[in-house]
Amino acid sequence: MQTVKIVVTGPFSAGKTQFIQTISEIDVVATEKKISRAEERVKDQTTVAMDFGRISVADDLVLYLFGTPGQRRFDFMWEILAEGMLGFVVLLDSVKPETFREARSILDTFRAYAPVPYVVAANKQDMADAWPPEDLRIALRIPPEIKVLPCVATDQESVQHVLLELLYSVLELMDAEAEE
Amino acid sequence: MALKGNLRDFSTTQLLNLINLARKTGTLTIDANGNQSWLCFKEGKLVYATQDERGGHLAKMLQQSGKLTDEQARAIQQRMEIKNDKELGLLLINAGYVSQEDIVRSVRSYILNNVYPLFTWSDGTFRFDANMLPFEDRITIPISLENVIMEGSRRMQEWERLQDELPNLDMALRFVERPDARMRDINMSVEEWRVVSFINPRNTIHQIAQFNNTSEFQIRKIVYALMQAGLVELVLPEGVTRPAPGAPDKAPATMRPPAVKRGVVEKLIGFFQQRQ
Question: Is the ipTM of this complex over 0.85?
Answer without folding.
Answer: no
